Fold this sequence. Notes:
- InterPro entries: Mrr-like_N_dom (IPR025745), Restrct_endonuc-II-like (IPR011335), Restrct_endonuc_IV_Mrr (IPR007560), tRNA_endonuc-like_dom_sf (IPR011856), Type_IV_Methyl-Rstrct_Enzyme (IPR052906).
- This is Restriction system protein.
- The protein has two domains: about 100 residues, no CATH class; about 120 residues, Trna Endonuclease, Chain: A, domain 1, CATH 3.40.1350.10.
- By secondary structure, it is of the alpha/beta class.
- The strands form three sheets. The protein has a five-stranded mixed beta sheet, sandwiched between helices. It has a three-stranded antiparallel beta sheet with strand order 1-3-2.
- Helix content is about 45%, strand content about 20%.
Amino acid sequence: xxxxxxxxxxxxxxxxxxxxxxxxxxxxxxxxxxxxxxxxxxxxxxxxxxxxxxxxxxxxxxxxxxxxxxxxxxxxxxxxxxxxxxxxxxxxxxxxxxxxxxxxxxxxxxxxxxxxxxxxxxxxxxxxxxxxxxxxxxxxxxxxxxxxxxxxxxxxxxxxxxxxxxxxxxxxxxxxxxxxxxxxxxxxxxxxxxxxxxxxxxxxxxxxxxxxxxxxxxxxxxxxxxxxxxxxxxxxxxxxxxxxxxxxxxxxxxxxxxxxxxxxx
Length: 265
């Protein structure tokens, strides 16, 4: 088992290999899990937190690696966290020049900065009840109906209920818990939440502004138990951005002059 986290350069080949093993395309979570599996990284390494970003060191470094590989033309981002190898035999320049490294640093920092700022507003400036209403709005915007906030504590961690609709035909009841914290949700809270689900629903949703421990993730996906979907802080603000709820994106106009076009006259 690896005793220390690989450096960014040491994560380049594993990232390409992970995408290759996943069929040449994969989402961010799939790449992460495949690298963890291939490198046999321990839970203690995965839970090392980057003091600057508040997320795991590995996830931050992998974001840097993906951006560097994208800037070198090895992979492309086709939207919603999907990464594709431009060639199944893709390779890269291991001796990246200073300008490429600086460009990557700036791009990753810009990407992470807005997430940190959004989470800071949610965790520090929103009241618990306001946060619950925000989650209610997010669920409605994503197709849930009859979303109700319980508004009472002492109900086994259940903050609300709703009905998820699939293509307007199928539907199933879910219960959800939303936790506005900066730290990690432990395995025990997932177990307690699942206990509250018994006899009410077979599907749960746990949303936090923080992160989940590896044991919590395993517990949520444990075989033979009702499944619990997990949404951490990073995924939450990305969903807010996608839904344009409190987070706006501006596209800068890029003007290119086609010199050849003028030569036609």
